[in-house]
């Protein structure tokens, strides 16, 4: 088999894996938009905040220690214990649920009935608040995150492709785990939405707020639940991206990777986020592989947004989004 | 009532103001935002050195130092705002700590007559003092860095790089592209093959670049990265099992922040440096006695001895030595920005001077002149020991290839002079 074709296949597979990671971020956007019509600008910062909280709990860091030390002249930094990863993930989820409740109680309850642009602006404010709050709470140093996920080349795939094709493919173990977890996450979310009482209520709210209210669905509860689910998705994305690069404030920028995925897959479709992520991941990697060397490289971000723009022109609702119909 | 309030406010301002402070050094720091992890240690080191001088020596030449910290968030617009807000305070020197801010300040500070020191960043051709009257970039610039990196590779290969493959992984920005011309010129001279691999900002996703490195198997990889790009690149290099001792980053890719997330895999990774590492210097005893133990350390006081803290410390030391030189030249302790520029233009850093300051072999020896605002271009190589979690200086400070670099600097600065109608000085 020609060398270029083998390399192209390797790039294709890595593109799929990268796409899954993009889709993980996009999922959080979709959940909130689907249930409340809010485009949550703070989704990337939520991933950062979740990852910061997870590391903080795992390492037994004292939250707000810099502030406490500055005010009281103390020197406390750590509780002196470490929390196992699984327990820390559960505790972080408790924090994310509390955050979801507070976001709804103190922000969105006051904005019911406002224009979508107002709600969007509120999420921008929330993003900046959370970023600063996370900084004060956990400090701005770069934190190593290790929840036990393996990293590095998968030896099995390397060996088997080498034996079959004469060239060992590079697939990162972390990406394989991300794919596995993302598949589980999507199955769980779809099952929840289709078959659980609260999932059906969530879909009813997504279809029509007023109608959902009229049959006795508690809108506030559903919104808190959806923001909690988005917080959980943010935590998963934060773990995957934070394991790759360390937990640091640039993590909030991963939202930029989710936007073309959303434009392509549609803002209201969970499968759309996954398929959109895969198309963007594969497309940008293959484009960089084939065209990048001719134009000096660094084409990935450009390509992702241009591809999304082309899709928007021909299918504004995205691949799987609901068709926008407004009747007079 | 209004009058009373105004009087009270004025009184409060005077009481709060640094009444004894005579020498004002603004610190354009970034303790917030995506790059805060790098900005904090530098700002702490910069502040702690001046605090040490105030506490131990009573300032510089008997004049207390007034450090004004202004938060830029590593944002160019905010950096310029900081400059405008503080320049009227009697500012003697600006260290913008960002190439973007430096480019904006070059014409502004020159017009205002305030010197700018962009140490290891900024516009490389500002080394030519005949064109850039108020801009200094001693002791090294990016082109020196590229050359020192190649010199290190020459040392590893008995002076012969012909047939070797060198890849540059760079941040796709003006900063990241800085070394390309130099590396291309050096490739012609030494016969190595150069591959350029651009990484999109911010650099969280680099799979394409590292798959290419895995396919093409370059002998060495150089990196011009910043922020999250560094951590991801080092992790990706670990993932593809690239030999870390053949992976060399510029000095902005060589702090503890960059290697720690990759854990043991980062062992052996190298980075260029223009100052020494660690805290095994007498000055750290003084810092402990006069700054830390008195509760005067900047920030959380937990950054002493880290690479970027040492960089801030070194930057402050160079500023203080230039101020001392200015005081000697003009025979006054109360210097102005114009006098400070004269001091910088006559700065001479010797081993003897650094040893006296408690910083023996902390940086290279160099001399600044009217024509040469960039020093002698000496840099070194450091290496990360993941087990001990510390950097070690593994080479001496060696000079960059001036035969290749000087013509490039002349060419670039001449173009700037022509564009801006600047008449050469120092004649």
Automatic annotation (TrEMBL), chain A:
InterPro entries: ABC_transp_permease, BCAA_transport_permease. It is a multi-pass membrane protein. Keywords: Amino-acid transport, Cell membrane, Membrane, Transmembrane, Transmembrane helix, Transport. The chain crosses the membrane at residues 12-33, 45-64, 84-104, 116-138, 176-196, 217-241, 261-282, 289-314. Its main location: membrane. GO terms for molecular function: transmembrane transporter activity. GO terms for biological process: amino acid transport. It is found in: Cell membrane. GO terms for cellular component: plasma membrane. PANTHER family: ABC TRANSPORTER PERMEASE PROTEIN (PTHR11795:SF451), BRANCHED-CHAIN AMINO ACID TRANSPORT SYSTEM PERMEASE PROTEIN LIVH (PTHR11795). Belongs to the binding-protein-dependent transport system permease family. LivHM subfamily. This is Branched-chain amino acid ABC transporter permease.
From TrEMBL, chain B:
The keyword Signal applies. SUPFAM superfamilies: Periplasmic binding protein-like I. The keyword Signal applies. It holds the Pfam family Peripla_BP_6. Residues 25-386 form the Leucine-binding protein domain. Keywords: Signal. Residues 1-21 form the signal peptide. InterPro entries: Leu-bd, Peripla_BP_I. CDD domains: PBP1_ABC_ligand_binding-like. Belongs to the leucine-binding protein family. This is ABC transporter substrate-binding protein. It comes from Aquicoccus porphyridii.
């Amino acid at each position: 088999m020609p060398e270029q074709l083998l390399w192209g296949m390797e790039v294709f597979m890595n593109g799929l894996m990268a796409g899954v990671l993009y889709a993980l971020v996009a999922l959080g956007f979709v959940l909130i938009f689907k249930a409340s019509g809010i485009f949550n600008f703070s989704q990337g910062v939520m991933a950062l905040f979740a990852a910061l909280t997870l590391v903080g709990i795992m390492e037994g860091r004292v939250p707000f220690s810099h502030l406490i030390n500055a005010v009281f002249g103390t020197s406390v930094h750590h509780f002196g214990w470490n929390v196992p990863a699984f327990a820390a993930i559960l505790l972080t989820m408790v924090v994310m649920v509390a955050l979801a409740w507070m976001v709804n109680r103190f922000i969105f309850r006051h904005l019911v009935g406002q224009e979508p642009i107002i709600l969007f602006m509120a999420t921008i404010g929330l993003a900046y608040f959370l970023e600063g709050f996370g900084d004060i709470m956990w400090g701005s140093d770069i934190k190593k995150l290790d929840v036990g996920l393996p990293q590095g080349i998968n030896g099995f795939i390397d060996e088997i492709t080498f034996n079959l094709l004469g060239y060992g493919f590079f697939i990162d173990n972390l990406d394989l785990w991300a794919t596995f977890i993302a598949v589980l996450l999507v199955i769980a979310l779809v099952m929840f939405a289709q078959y659980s009482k609260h999932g059906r209520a969530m879909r009813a709210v997504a279809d029509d707020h007023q109608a959902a209210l009229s049959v006795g669905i508690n809108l506030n509860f559903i919104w808190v639940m959806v923001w909690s689910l988005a917080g959980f998705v943010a935590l998963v994305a934060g773990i995957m991206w934070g394991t790759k690069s360390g937990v640091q404030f640039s993590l909030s920028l991963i939202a930029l990777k989710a936007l073309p995925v959303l434009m392509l897959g549609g803002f209201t479709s969970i499968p759309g986020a996954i398929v959109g992520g895969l198309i963007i991941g594969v497309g940008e990697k293959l484009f960089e592989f084939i065209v990048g060397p001719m134009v000096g490289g660094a084409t990935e971000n450009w390509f992702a947004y241009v591809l999304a723009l082309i899709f928007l022109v021909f299918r504004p609702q995205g691949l799987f989004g609901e068709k926008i119909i407004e009747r007079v | 009532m209004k009058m009373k309030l105004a009087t009270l406010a004025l009184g409060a301002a005077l009481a709060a103001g640094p009444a004894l402070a005579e020498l004002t050094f603004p610190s354009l720091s970034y303790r917030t935002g995506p790059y805060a992890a790098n900005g904090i240690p530098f700002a702490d080191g910069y502040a702690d050195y001046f605090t040490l001088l105030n506490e131990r020596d009573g300032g510089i030449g008997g004049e207390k130092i007034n450090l004004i910290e202004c938060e830029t968030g590593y944002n160019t617009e905010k950096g310029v705002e900081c400059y405008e807000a503080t320049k009227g305070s009697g500012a003697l020197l600006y260290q913008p700590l960002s190439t973007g801010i430096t480019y904006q300040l070059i014409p502004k500070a020159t017009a205002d007559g305030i010197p700018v020191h962009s140490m290891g960043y900024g516009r490389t051709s500002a080394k030519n003092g005949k064109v850039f009257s108020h801009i200094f970039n001693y002791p090294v610039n990016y082109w020196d860095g590229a050359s020192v990196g190649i010199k290190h590779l020459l040392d590893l290969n008995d002076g012969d790089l012909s047939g070797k493959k060198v890849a540059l992984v760079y941040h796709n920005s003006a900063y990241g592209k800085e070394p390309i011309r130099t590396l291309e010129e050096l490739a012609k001279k030494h016969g190595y093959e150069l591959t350029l691999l651009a990484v999109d900002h911010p650099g969280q996703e680099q799979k394409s670049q590292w798959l290419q490195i895995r396919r093409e198997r370059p002998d060495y990889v150089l990196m011009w990265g910043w922020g999250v790009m560094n951590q991801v690149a080092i992790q990706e290099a670990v993932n593809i099992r690239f030999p870390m001792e053949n992976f060399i980053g510029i000095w902005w890719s060589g702090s503890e922040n960059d290697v720690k997330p990759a854990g043991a895999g980062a062992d052996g990774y190298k980075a260029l440096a223009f100052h020494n590492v660690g805290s095994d210097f007498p000055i750290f005893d003084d810092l402990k006695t006069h700054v830390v133990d008195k509760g005067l350390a900047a920030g959380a006081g937990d950054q002493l001895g880290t690479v970027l803290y040492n960089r801030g410390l070194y930057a402050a030391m160079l500023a203080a030595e230039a101020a001392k030189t200015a005081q000697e030249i003009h025979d006054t302790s109360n210097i102005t920005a114009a006098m400070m520029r004269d001091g910088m233009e006559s700065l001479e850093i010797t081993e003897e001077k650094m040893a006296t300051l408690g910083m023996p072999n902390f940086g290279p020896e160099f001399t600044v002149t009217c024509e040469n605002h960039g020093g002698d271009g000496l840099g070194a190589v450091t290496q990360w020991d993941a087990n001990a979690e510390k950097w070690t200086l593994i080479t001496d400070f060696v000079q960059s290839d001036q035969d290749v670099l000087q013509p490039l600097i002349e060419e670039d600065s001449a173009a700037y002079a022509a564009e801006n109608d600047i008449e050469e000085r120092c004649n």
